[in-house]
Amino acid sequence: MKKIVFGFIIAMISLTSFAQNDVLFEQGKSFYKQDKYIEAIEQWKKILDKKVHSADLYFNLANAHYKLNNVAPSIYFYEKALRLSPNDSEIKNNLAFAQNMTIDIIEPLPKTVFAKWYNTVSGVMEFNGWAITSITFVVLFVLLFLAYYFSFSERKKRFLFLGFIIAFIGIIISLVFAFYTYSDFKNDRPAIIFSENIDVQNSPTKNGEVSFTLHEGTKVQVTDKEDNWFRIKLIDGKDGWIPEESLKEL
Fold first, then answer.
1. What is the pTM (predicted TM-score) of this model?
2. pLDDT tens digits, residue range 69-105?
3. DSSP string, the chain
4. Same domain membership, residue 57 and residue 37
5. Which end of the chain is more exposed for a tag (fewer CB within 10 A), N or C?
């Protein structure tokens, strides 16, 4: 009985919280329509403070910051929205507009034919999808092998033999992609530069030699951390160290 009452109380609290968030979201939209972008941001940030996340929330926050010409926050929130809804064309279009406000022009390194092929194939599924695929091939392999073992027909044996060989190849390929896509996922630490401009140094010290300069809104990859310094890498291969407060991880 106590568990039922406790569950009912939790459910009521959750419903109340959802209702409050809906009110805050609508209030933010109302302010946005009145061109009161700062007030809209304040309302939507109250939802974020409750650890509630959604593509719509990030998208609207990004739009408001874009209207205020806040380069880094607008790109940051568009990127956050895109991670939750990667196929949303409206988010992609607005992100492209926001990126046009950035100063840094960084050309990606040319990709090899193998890298292009890998990106195309690995992008079909996330690592968990490849893992499920490998399990499916394992089950198929076992079934085909058993059918081959107990079959008395030479014709069926040849067909089943070819089948479990193909299934075995499928296991290897899907396991390889599961491993590499999981590794990519673990190592993927994108961040947005929030400082108006920041010198990227060759060492994590204040007296390090400046390698190059970045400006707000530029997207980087975090590859390491030492004390209050992040090592970052650009798509053109350049890397270096910047203070932790200069960026915000997605």
1. 0.74
2. 999 999 999 999 998 888 889 999 999 999 998 888 8
3. -HHHHHHHHHHHHHHHHHHHHHHHHHHHHHHHHTT-HHHHHHHHHHHHTTT---HHHHHHHHHHHHHTT-HHHHHHHHHHHHHHSTT-HHHHHHHHHHHTT-S---PPPPPPHHHHHHHHHHTTS-HHHHHHHHHHHHHHHHHHHHHHHH---HHHHHHHHHHHHHHHHHHHHHHHHHHHHHHHHHH--EEEE-SSEEEEESSSSTTPPEEEEEETT-EEEEEEEETTEEEEE-TTS-EEEEEGGGEEE-
4. yes
5. N
